[in-house]
Amino acid sequence: MSDTTALPAPSGPYLGKGLLPADFYAYAEQLSAAEREKIESIREFLRTQAAPIVDDYWARAEFPFQLVEGFGKLGLMDWADPDSTQSQPSNLLAGFVALEFGHADASLATFFGAHAGLAIGTILACGSDEQKRRWLPAMSRLEKVGAFALTEPHGGSDVAGGLKTTARRDGDGWILDGAKRWIGNATFADLVVVWARDVETDRVLGFVVEKDTPGFTATKIEHKMALRIVQNADIVLDGCRVPETNRLQNANTFKDTAQILRKTRSGVAWQAVGVMFAAYEIALQYAKEREQFGRPIGSFQLVQDLLVKMLGNATASCGMVTRLARLQDAGVFRDEQSALAKAYCTVRMRESVGWARELLAGNGIVLDYKVGRFVADAEALYSYEGTREIQTLIVGRAVTGGLSAFVG
């Protein structure tokens, strides 16, 4: 007999308390009451503290540092402190956190993902107990901000085999030489996880380079059209010396790097869902208020068609990442499942924000109406953490029983 009580029935027309209008199938009601309360506190902070200022900071390509302390007080990463009594949140809750950040602003979602998912995630997975105790307490409270440096000026999708940054053992330390590009948070980060190839063993190793280390420079990348709030940097490592105690003791091959990316890739899919939710909600409100030919444009068939297509994309994508989170929580998810979610959701996001821009017509390119920001930022989410093409080849290899179409 089927269990008809596994999920609560949505209340009202289709929305439960505190759910976003785009959550048409009420996926968030799968969260516990305590988890929903946490999500609502995050949403309230983003609504009252972030939303009023992000357009201005996006236009100026500057970071709103005044928000960092508030992010820390939300307690989103308290569990990462080795002395914390809190348990790690479910992947479902973590996913909805990423959705909420994406819904508010894709740049803030990227800042949080780089710090919590990539930097903290790497130290948790690859650091020794001593290293975790040294760095994670302050990072969990956002008293120290982290960054993750893997991509290089001439190496993105092929970085697994083409990593050029080198690490050379020198006495009780290591000398790092090379360059990194597109490193979010790096202009102001206190700790940067740097991946480099050991010149003796050819293995990929992980290091934590602390702020103001001689030989480390980070220069802001200017003139971006997307994620303008994110302070991406070009990094140069020129004889940068780090002690052996800053080498991540459990990061010894690129497989260790890949395990971090496998986890964060799904986070980007969740961010994409948040962006879709926001674009749909803005378009829906606009359609109800904007009048042409003497009535709201929401009463026209072609406008309703755009709204329904956006809602369908958002709903299908939310269903995919929700199921993926359940698989992650059960410990049975696979690389190709994260890859499919990242590829599918970002494609649907790119499509949906375009439809929102179309619905707003000329107003869709004016920052005051916000949709233009989501359109631009979607281009970055579409590409980072693995392009659609690379994710496609990962999934293709899996579904064909291991037939690889990768070249090289």
From TrEMBL:
Which PROSITE patterns does this entry report, sorted A to Z? ACYL_COA_DH_1
Instruction: Give UniProt keywords alphabetically.
Output: FAD, Flavoprotein, Oxidoreductase
Cytoplasm found in the keyword field: no
- Cofactor(s) listed in the protein's UniProt record: FAD
**UniProt xrefs under InterPro entries:** ACX4-like, Acyl-CoA_DH_CS, Acyl-CoA_Oxase/DH_mid-dom, Acyl-CoA_Oxase/DH_mid-dom_sf, AcylCo_DH-like_C, AcylCo_DH/oxidase_C, AcylCoA_DH/ox_N, AcylCoA_DH/ox_N_sf
Residue ranges of domain Acyl-CoA oxidase/dehydrogenase middle in the record = 147-240
Q: Which residues form the Acyl-CoA dehydrogenase/oxidase N-terminal domain?
A: 35-141
Protein's UniProt keywords contain Thylakoid? no
All copies of domain Acyl-CoA dehydrogenase/oxidase C-terminal, residue ranges: 259-399
Checking Pfam families in the record gives:
Acyl-CoA_dh_1, Acyl-CoA_dh_M, Acyl-CoA_dh_N
Q: Which family does it belong to?
A: Belongs to the acyl-CoA dehydrogenase family.
Q: What is this protein called?
A: Acyl-CoA dehydrogenase family protein
Q: Which organism is it from?
A: Streptomyces lannensis
List the taxonomic lineage: Bacteria, Bacillati, Actinomycetota, Actinomycetes, Kitasatosporales
